[in-house]
Amino acid sequence: MAQFSKDTHELTFEEMEQSLASIEIPPCPAIVTQVMTEAQKDVPDINKLTRLISADVGMSAFAIKLANSSLFRRGAMTDNVAQAIARLGTRNIVCIVVATALRNSLSGGLPEEFMESFWRRAGNAALASGMVARKLRGLPADLAYTFGLFHDAAIPVMMRRFDDYQSLMAEIQVSHVPLPVAEDARYHCTHPVVGALLARSWGLQDTLVAGIRFHHDPDVYAMEARFLPEPARGLIACTHVAEHVLAELNGEQDMEVGDLYGKALNYLGLHEEDIQDMREDLSDAVS
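Request: output the structure for the sequence above.
Response:
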């Protein structure tokens, strides 16, 4: 069974090989690489980015939806791809491409009902994480959005590999055992590890990779910065707050965050009064 080194908080190469020997990481689609390469230039060609996104119906629709969302909307609604991209800016274009490509890459061969529910929850978590980050200093909303979308993306990867994965998820609803603990016991790998490798293979920022790797770690708010950079911890905290509030709004028990919610608030310097102000915005945004 793969274990963390208590000196490095990292998996060794051999442990990764052992854990992921039977997991197929979806390859990064070419369009993701093309858009990231262009968006990261000192002077990105917005016309080229617009052409790339306009050529994909799913990405075009998502660009318009995101531009009209409460996270990015400024002024009147738009139904024009070029206007949507101009409103979002080049940094947020990466959100569009990653979101659409991720859904296309991971949905094949899995129960449609489950995947619709999974992507709805992931989209809501992304939007809510971005809204939490927008109220803080030093945490870009676009990065929080991408993290919220991607942090549990390895769940469909593992479901596609392990036939009994859905039954495992049903079991933890009764046992209340944390999902990574149950995954490690049965499969000797976890979705945070697989998700971090997926994010790395897709060329996402190291901050996102580290955040995905440790977002379920019970010691995440005590971990030394040399193991978990503060920007990554900030992304985790935004998503912890977002997921807890979303569970409340949906009338569900918080199975994802638990005791880490209070620690996330403390880390971000937020109070329950601050969150109360966010609840109505989040309710309107995800309805």
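Residues 1-8 have pLDDT under 50 and may be disordered.
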